[in-house]
Amino acid sequence: MLLKRFLLRYYPPGIILEYEQAKQIKTKSIDLLELSPESDIDALLDDISRREPLITPNRMNQVRQLIVKLQTKLSKKDDHKFYLFKILRAHILPLTNVAFNKSGSSFITGSYDRTCKVWDTASGEELHTLEGHRNVVYAIAYNNPYGDKIATGSFDKTCKLWSTEDGKCHHTYRGHTAEIVCLSFNPQSTLIATGSMDHTAKLWDVEKGNEVRTLSGHTAEIISLSFNTTGSHIITGSFDHTVALWDIHAGRQVHTFIGHRGEISSAQFNFDSSMVVTASMDKTCKLWDVRTGQCTGTFSGHEDEILDVVFDSTGQHIASASADSTARIYNAVTQTCMAKLEGHEGEISKVAFNSQGTQILTASADKTARIWDPNTGQNMQGVRTTPVASGDDYDDEVTVTMVTATNGENILCVTRQMSPSFKVIRRPVLCQLKLDENSLKVPKKNRCFLLFTLLND
């Protein structure tokens, strides 16, 4: 094996090694998930040299410099404020979902009008209208990080694959016998997974357009699915109160996570794919060991249904959002509650960490989105979402999508039910960051979404 070059990953912290083996270029990562500005660099270098044969003594100085860069990035604080940037009109019928590409330069919207639209974030210009579905377009996704394809899932029981460049449909995937309500590309962008009200998930070949396999085993609707970081496994969350872990290549069910007493609302892998966190209508979150399939912890305390749960980028912290109008932050290692986020006056439907893990975003039915400090639970900023000079009805739910892009731009997208417009807030380029997106799915019955940007104080 011959080491060719280093690539730096800021969030979560890590160093990617590009090397040649048998005349093929491959990559592997050195994950530094516990890195902090105070970490002992010499101790880290000793550990890396023991674990990684590609890192020879003459490369150690380069690795030291990369770690210093990572620590410098982690030490920078982001205390900018959001401000209203733009209000855009989307669809003539309610929106169902929004999704950004990796850089945040464009986004897509799904709607009850049976279309998906592609938008330029900076200008608000509509780039393409993706037409062809015969019912509600409910689930949508880019094939990030590539961003050259879009998948749409519909109540017409089909999934379609589209080109982002010209808006043309490449494939229509048929096979489900009920509505498709969730979907995702695998990290390699070779597969699309769809979850349906027919109790099954299906895997589809992106290039060939055929069904690869059907994942059967749930006894109720599948409403959540997620690939792990490497794309080797997928989890499906169901109204049957369980989450299933599947081996993609073998097509078999590895574990069934049983323990919740209510419908599953959300499920997610941590970054290194060793743990899964689940949220349920039974007012609890549970942490599961992927290797054994056993529950390693239950997070209780919410007084109503938990609607969303997420890991931060390193997998060390967990945030939950509840219909009791609060969010909670947990330490995934000690399984203790670090902070209770109080201030919303309606149920919180979505929650997200920024890439650094230094801010948390919540979206509530009280028509506000709020930014929080996860360490103190302090409300750093509230964004009122009701637009100025609008006669629309804003009595329904507000949800948020936040993307932290590679140029340091933070975009906050808020949609509310039955509104025909959306607002945009975008952030000027203040610093050069290499970040991935933190996105929140937007629920059904929305026509309006808002984008917010950060204001440099």
Automatic annotation (TrEMBL):
Superkingdom, taxonomy of origin: Eukaryota
PROSITE patterns, A to Z: WD_REPEATS_1, WD_REPEATS_2, WD_REPEATS_REGION
Name of the featured protein: Uncharacterized protein
SMART domains named in the record: WD40
Key words of the record: Repeat, WD repeat
Segments annotated as WD repeats: 88-129, 130-172, 173-214, 215-256, 257-298, 299-340, 341-382
Cellular component terms (Gene Ontology): U4/U6 x U5 tri-snRNP complex
Pfam families, per the entry: WD40 (PF00400)
GO BP terms in the entry: mRNA splicing, via spliceosome
GO MF term list: U4 snRNA binding; U6 snRNA binding
InterPro entries reported for this sequence: WD40/YVTN_repeat-like_dom_sf, WD40_PAC1, WD40_repeat_CS, WD40_repeat_dom_sf, WD40_rpt
